[in-house]
Amino acid sequence: MILQLEVPVTEPTLMIVPWHDPVVDAVGFDARSTYVELFWLNVLGPTATWLLRRLVSGFDRYPLGYELDLDDTARALGLGYTLGTSNPFIRALNRCVLFGVAQPYDGGLAVRRRVPPVAARHLLRMPESLRATHRDWIARPPADRAVPDGERARVLAGAMCDVGDQPDAVERQLLALGVSPRAAVAYARAAGAREDPIDPDRSVAPSHGGLAAG
């Protein structure tokens, strides 16, 4: 069962501050990194992952914290939001708390800028192909941990379709993450049809703009 957020959400804004954790900050991964896209996505789900990225991006401009406009942020993510009711946006916040990438504090929410490696119990629930990718990732030196863009797009598209997102929504998210238009269409359609995609570009454009980073 998803725990309810302990901070009140009866106001139109919510104070967001960085969660300082010296241990995780030393060994963890940037919340906007490829590691989070590939592995934490399977744990948090697509909506909470996009939300986490956006919350952390706010610290680039306001490193000490900022007020988050709840309705505006929900709309920017394509989510419904009504003040004082349960809705997809609040459920995404709750998932961030449930899985330890955010925690309530008096009057707001503390959010991790760096997240820990995915726990073993979560890895056990992943497809074997994703577990193998994770084992290979951890075994390699940090400088060699680049993941082919085609594999990155395939994993993202598959995870979104698995939770019910339609191919056109998947395509838009891939485009926002810097995937080329031809590849975004191919991976979105293949994921929706549960087929193995063939990358039409053979190489996907590197991430840029939008919510992409790291």
Task: Describe the SSE topology.
Blueprint: E1 13-18, H1 22-27, E2 29-30, H2 34-44, H3 46-61, E3 66-69, H4 70-76, H5 88-98, E4 102-105, E5 108-111, E6 114-115, H6 120-123, H7 128-139, H8 149-162, H9 167-176, H10 181-192
Parallel strand pairs: 1-5
Antiparallel strand pairs: 1-3, 2-6, 4-5
Helix pairs in contact: 2-3, 2-8, 3-5, 8-9, 8-10, 9-10
Entry keywords:
single chain, 214 residues, alpha+beta, two-stranded antiparallel ribbon, globular, disordered C terminus
**Strand content range:** 5-15%
Overall residue-averaged pLDDT value: 79
Using the alpha-carbon principal axes, give the shape: globular
What structural class do the secondary elements suggest? alpha+beta
Uncertain residue segments: 201-214
Rounded to the nearest angstrom, the radius of gyration is 17 Å
**The biggest beta sheet, please?**
4 strands, mixed
- Helix content bin: 40-55%
Strand arrangement within the widest β-sheet reads 3-1-5-4
Oligomer: single chain
Number of helices: 10
